[in-house]
Design a protein that fits this description.
Shape: globular
Number of helices: 12
Strand content: 15-25%
Number of domains: 3
Structural class: alpha/beta
Low-confidence stretches: none
CATH class of the largest domain: Alpha Beta
Number of strands: 14
CATH architecture of the largest domain: 2-Layer Sandwich
Helix content: 25-40%
Radius of gyration: 22 Å
Largest sheet: 5 strands, mixed
CATH superfamily of the largest domain: ATPase, nucleotide binding domain
Oligomer: single chain
Bound molecules: zinc ion
Order of helices and strands: HHHEEEEEHEEEHEHEEEHHHHEHEH
CATH topology of the largest domain: Nucleotidyltransferase, domain 5
Length: 375
Amino acid sequence: MARSARNAEYTKDYNRKLFLRLLRTGPLSRSEIARRIGLTRAATSLIAEEMIEGGYVRETIATDKPLGRNPVPLQLIGSAAYAVGIYLNRSGCRAGIVDMRGRVLAQTELAQISPEHMDLLSQAISRMIEAHGIPKEKVVGAGISAPGPLDGENGKILNPPGFEVWHHVDITRSLRSRLDMPVYLANDAACMAQYCLGKKETGGSENYLLLLVDSGVGSGVVIRGKTLKGAGFFTGELGHTSIDLNGRPCICGNNGCLEAYASIPNLLRGSCYSTWKQVMDGREDALAKELFQREMDYLTVGIVNMANLVSIDTVLLAGDLLYRADLTASALEKQINQRLLRREIMPIRVLPSCSGPDVPIQSAAELAFDWFLRA
Ligand SMILES: [Zn+2]
């Protein structure tokens, strides 16, 4: 008896979460939701009423069908829940408050940050929550996106090169005790890969690699609409796959890691260029042209290694590669498809990923929403 009651409650909760997850992709009618969840129209309407009453959802005006019984689309109410997004990288940290519809309400930046600054960071986050009058119980948690390798399951950053101050820091425990909310950690590229899922930038793909190149080289892989995760939430570390047996030693213990060549600082070391943007703007210059070609060659080897192992059909470019991504995408696409094992049956497309200044914060916050709505 108690067990069946628990099961009924669980199922109801499961359906509610699926319902909210679906609406996070945009407004949908009750019948469309019923079709996608696989519930009856009546059961979906019951959940809808409950969600409207609970302040999670509201009806919008149907505008696309002028005649007949218009299905009234339901829309999420942004203020129904919030999450904190924290984007930690080699040049500092950005943190923001994101509403249920994915909008960033406020953000702050800490240029110099180390594990000793956790009080400063948590105070800045608490101030943003208070300044927007957000009730604490509406904040479902905080997501941290950081360079890998990291142990997401145990909330620990491991040993990313150039990120020594954070090595082996249990950042989630440190923030959880200060913010008094659930805190999650994931690889920055994996967060962005998950964020792009279902968005038009993927070109409809559910099998893709997101390649993040900036001061490091990171990757996130989505297969059949799910982020690839293994033990310890360890995801694809493309930056630490070797492209040269006798190559440069890497702090990870391997030799010739892709990151040791293709991260922007490593690519430009010893040249007169200091940013990828300068290289792209100076492509008439012989050195810039050579650096661009060298980067395409490095990345092609890494991507082909990955694509011959995991059946992706699309590569999404992120980080510094978003600048003049059209040029990089076409150069990479051409080179990859000259070397790919299965090029004749399934060539790879290269596209720019979701862009915008807030994407790093939004994708980090998505970690917390994802846990909150995990069905
Ligand atoms: Zn390495």
